[in-house]
From TrEMBL, chain A:
Entry-linked InterPro entries: Bact_Solute-Bind_Prot2 (IPR050555), SBP_2_dom (IPR025997)
Domain of life from the UniProt record: Bacteria
Keywords: Signal
CDD domains per the UniProt record, alphabetical: PBP1_ABC_sugar_binding-like (cd06312)
Domain Periplasmic binding protein, residue spans: 51-287
Pfam family, one: Peripla_BP_4
Family: Belongs to the bacterial solute-binding protein 2 family.
Main subcellular location: other
Protein name: Sugar ABC transporter substrate-binding protein
Signal peptide as annotated in the record: 1-27
Keyword Transferase: no
Record's subcellular location: Cell envelope
From TrEMBL, chain B:
Listed transmembrane segments: 34-55, 67-100, 112-133, 139-159, 196-215, 243-259, 279-305, 325-344
Organism of this sequence: Pseudonocardia abyssalis
Protein name, UniProt field: Xylose transport system permease protein XylH
InterPro entries to which the protein is assigned, alphabetical: ABC_transp_permease
Membrane topology designation: Multi-pass membrane protein
Length: 326, 353
C-alpha cells in the first residue's frame, strides 16, 4: 500500500506537469503531433482497443498527441474497435515499421501476447495502458499505466454506501469487456448491499435510457444506479427522472454532461481514471527510457485513478471536460 | 453428292451460331472479378509508393493476416450470395465457434479434438437451421439470419457468462493436447526469415475448393441457377432447397474454421467476437463482383475483395494516415467497386452477350 501511494503521488506529479504543459488553450491537431517543443524525434505508436470516435478514447488520443508535441516525438494513434485480432495486426505493423516504442491497451491480453513479445524481441519497449494490469509485467512490458478496476469499483461502492444506497444497479454498456465486469464486482464488494448487473448498448443511449427506466419502475426498492461510462451516465439521469425513482446516481468517467449533472446535484460523483494521462504519461515514459534509460514504477502499475469528481470540484473540471481533455 | 439444290451454308467446325464470338478484351471485362483485380493492383501500387514496408515480406505477411481471415468467410458468403441469399449471422457465428470450443475444453475438460468436432457440428447446425427456415418459410434470408444473428449474440454472452462467470474465455494454451492442434491452426511458415500465419494457407485452400466447386461441379451450376431464378431452376429439376441449405452450411463450416483459427492463435476468445464482421464479408463479396440479387459472381473475386480489405486496413497504417479515416476509405472502396461492377454489367448487356 505504501508503494502504491508513492506511485499515485508520482502519477499526480506527472499529471500536474501535463496539465501545465497542455494549458496553452489550443486544441492539438493530429497534424501538429510530433513537430513540437523537444528535439528527440522518436517515433511512437499507440494501439488501443477503443473504437474510433469514442469520447473516452478520444481523450486518450489527445493526451498522447499532446505529449508528442511537448516531447518532440512523433505519435501515431491507432484504434481497433475492440477486436483483439485487429489490434495484434496493428502492433505487428508498428513492429515492421521499426518504431521506437509501442503503447498498448490490453483488454484481451492473451490475444496480444505473441505480438507484444515480437516487439520486445526486436528491442522495442512496450508500455501497457488502461486494461491488462495483471499481465503487463508477465509480458515483459516496461510499465503499466492505468486504473485498477477492482479498486475503483470498490471505491465507488463505498461512496455510494456512505450516501445511503443499499440496493443498486450496475449498468454495463459494453458486452465482452472484462474491465467493466471487474468494476461491478468491486462495486458490489464496496457497497456491501445487493447489486444487480444490467446490460445495455453504448451505441444505443435511448434504448439504454428505456431499459434503465423500466428496471427502476419495476423495482422501486432500487435506490442507487452506477453507470460505467459517461454516455450512459447522462441518459441514466433522464431515466431516473422519468421513472420517478429516488435512486442516487454515480458514473465512471467524465464528459461535459456528467460534470454539469454533478455541479447541479443530479449526480453524486464520477469515478475519474483521468485517461488523458493514460495517453500522455506513456509517451513521456518512453521518451525518458529511450533517452535516459529511466523506468517508472519499478514494475508496479502507475495508477491514474480513481480520482473522484464531486460537487466540490465539478466546476473546475467542467471546462476541461468540454475541451475534451478530461 | 454435289447435286443438292439448297446446300446448307458451310459452317466452320466447332462453332455454334447461338454463341456470339466475343473478343478477348471484352471477355476479360465480362469476368466478375476483373473490376476488383484492377482495384487491387491500383491500391497495391498506391500503398507501395507511400511506404516501402508495405511491400516488404514482413509487410505482406502483415496485411495477408486480416485478408485471409476475412477471405475464408468471404468465399462461403460469396457462394451463398451467388445462390441468392445473405447470412447476417456469419460474423457472430465465428465467435460462437470459438466460445464453444473454449468452454468445452477449459471448463468441462473435454478433449480439444472432440470439442473442435462438436463445435463444427454446432456451426453446421446453425447453417442448417438458417437454410431450412429460409427454404421452408420463403421469408427473406435477411430476416431469418438477422434473427439468428441476434439470438447467437445473446447466447454467446449469456451462456458464456452462465458457465464461466466472465465475458471472455482464456487459458487455451494450458488445455491438454493444445500443442497437437497448434500446427493446424496457429503455426507459422517461415519464408526467407519472415513468418506467415497458417491461416493464409487455409485461405488459399478454401478459395481453390470454392472456385472448383462453382466452376466444375454440378453443385456449382445449381448454385448459379438457384440464385438466378429459383422458380425456373426448380422447374428444370434443380434441388433448390438442398442447394440453399448446403450453401448456408458452407458458411457455418467456414465460420467454424475462422473461429478456431482465431481461438488457437489468440488462446482466448471474447463474447463480442465477430460482431459486425458479417458486413465486411458481404463487402468483400460485392467488391469481388457478386451481385446483391444473386446468380452472378465469383469466389476468386471475393478473395480479391478480401485482399483489398486487408491491404486497406493495414495500408493506411503504413501510409501513416489517421485511423479516423479508415471506415471512410472502406466505404469509398465499396462504392467504387459497386459502380465499376454496374458499369461492367451495362457494358455486357450493351455488347449483346
Amino acid at each position: 500500500m505504501k508503494l502504491r501511494k508513492g506511485v499515485v503521488v508520482a502519477a499526480s506529479a506527472a499529471l500536474l506537469l501535463a496539465a501545465g504543459c497542455s494549458g496553452t488553450g489550443q486544441a492539438p491537431s493530429a497534424e501538429s503531433a510530433g513537430g513540437g517543443g523537444g528535439t528527440y524525434g522518436y517515433n511512437f505508436t499507440v494501439v488501443t482497443h477503443g473504437a474510433a470516435g469514442d469520447t473516452f478514447w478520444d481523450v486518450v488520443k489527445k493526451g498522447a498527441e499532446q505529449a508528442g508535441t511537448d516531447e518532440g516525438v512523433t505519435v501515431t494513434y491507432r484504434d481497433s474497435n475492440g477486436d483483439p485480432a485487429r489490434q495484434s495486426q496493428l502492433i505487428d505493423a508498428a513492429v515492421n515499421e521499426g518504431v521506437d516504442g509501442i503503447v498498448v491497451s490490453m483488454a484481451n491480453p492473451d490475444a496480444l501476447r505473441s505480438s507484444i513479445e515480437a516487439a520486445e524481441a526486436k528491442g522495442i519497449p512496450v508500455i501497457t495502458i488502461n486494461s491488462g494490469q495483471d499481465r503487463s509485467a508477465e509480458f515483459g512490458a516496461l510499465a503499466h499505466v492505468g486504473q485498477d478496476e477492482g479498486i475503483a469499483g470498490r471505491g465507488a461502492g463505498e461512496q455510494m454506501a456512505a450516501a445511503g444506497v443499499t440496493k443498486a444497479l450496475c449498468v454495463i454498456q459494453e458486452a465482452g469487456n472484462i474491465g467493466l465486469e471487474q468494476r461491478c464486482a468491486g462495486f458490489a464488494e464496496g457497497l456491501g448491499g445487493s447489486v444487480e448487473n444490467l446490460q445495455v448498448e453504448n451505441s444505443n443511449p435511448t434504448g439504454a435510457q428505456a431499459t434503465i427506466r423500466a428496471k427502476l419502475q419495476s423495482d422501486p426498492s432500487i435506490n442507487g444506479v452506477l453507470t460505467l461510462g459517461p454516455v450512459i451516465g447522462a441518459v441514466a439521469i433522464n431515466a431516473v427522472a422519468e421513472s420517478g425513482s429516488a435512486a442516487q446516481l454515480a458514473t465512471f468517467d467524465l464528459n461535459g454532461d456528467v460534470t454539469q449533472a454533478i455541479a447541479d446535484g443530479k449526480m453524486l460523483f464520477a469515478v475519474d481514471q483521468q485517461q488523458y494521462t493514460q495517453g500522455y504519461l506513456p509517451i513521456v515514459m518512453l521518451t525518458l527510457y529511450k533517452s535516459n534509460l529511466n523506468t517508472i514504477g519499478g514494475g508496479q502499475p502507475v495508477l491514474t485513478g480513481p480520482g473522484y469528481v464531486t460537487r466540490e470540484n465539478a466546476a473546475q473540471v467542467q471546462d476541461l471536460a468540454t475541451q475534451g481533455t478530461r | 453428292m454435289t447435286t443438292t439444290l439448297n446446300p446448307t451454308p458451310p459452317a466452320p467446325p466447332d462453332t455454334d451460331e447461338r454463341v456470339a464470338r466475343v473478343g478477348l478484351l471484352r471477355r476479360l471485362v465480362l469476368r466478375p472479378e476483373i473490376g476488383s483485380l484492377i482495384g487491387a493492383v491500383i491500391l497495391f501500387v498506391l500503398f507501395a509508393v507511400s511506404s516501402t514496408q508495405f511491400w516488404s515480406l514482413a509487410g505482406i505477411s502483415n496485411w495477408l493476416d486480416p485478408a485471409s481471415l476475412f477471405g475464408i468467410m468471404a468465399v462461403a458468403v460469396a457462394m451463398l450470395m451467388i445462390g441468392g441469399h445473405f447470412d447476417l449471422s456469419a460474423g457472430v457465428l465465428t465467435g460462437t465457434a470459438g466460445l464453444a470450443t473454449a468452454v468445452m475444453t477449459t471448463q468441462w475438460g473435454l478433449n480439444i479434438w472432440v470439442a473442435l468436432l462438436v463445435s463444427l457440428v454446432v456451426c453446421l447446425g446453425v447453417g442448417f437451421v438458417n437454410g431450412y427456415l429460409v427454404t421452408r418459410t420463403g421469408l427473406p434470408s435477411f430476416i431469418i439470419t438477422l434473427a439468428t444473428f441476434l439470438m447467437l449474440q445473446g447466447l454467446n454472452l449469456a451462456v458464456t457468462k452462465l458457465i464461466t462467470g466472465t465475458v471472455s474465455v482464456g487459458g487455451m494454451a494450458q488445455v491438454p493436447f493444445f500443442e497437437s492442434v497448434r500446427p493446424l491452426f496457429a503455426s507459422r511458415i517461415n519464408v526467407f526469415g519472415v513468418d506467415f500465419k497458417i491461416q493464409i494457407v487455409w485461405w488459399v485452400v478454401i478459395v481453390a475448393i470454392g472456385a472448383w466447386v462453382l466452376a466444375k461441379t454440378r453443385f456449382g451450376n445449381w448454385t448459379f441457377a438457384v440464385g438466378g431464378d429459383p422458380v425456373a431452376s426448380r422447374n428444370v429439376g434443380v434441388p433448390d432447397k438442398r442447394t440453399t441449405i448446403t450453401l448456408f452450411m458452407g458458411v457455418g463450416a467456414c465460420a467454424w474454421l475462422v473461429g478456431s483459427l482465431k481461438l488457437m492463435e489468440q488462446t482466448s476468445v471474447q463474447t463480442s467476437q465477430g460482431f459486425g464482421e458479417e458486413l465486411i464479408y458481404i463487402v468483400a463479396a460485392v467488391i469481388g463482383g457478386c451481385l446483391l440479387t444473386g446468380g452472378y459472381g465469383s469466389v476468386i473475386g471475393a478473395a480479391i475483395g478480401a485482399l483489398i480489405f486487408g491491404m486497406t486496413s493495414q495500408g493506411i497504417v503504413y501510409a501513416g494516415l489517421d485511423s479516423d479515416w479508415f471506415k471512410f476509405f472502406l466505404g469509398a472502396m465499396l462504392l467504387l467497386a459497386v459502380l465499376a461492377n454496374q458499369y461492367v454489367r451495362r457494358y455486357a448487356e450493351r455488347s449483346g452477350r
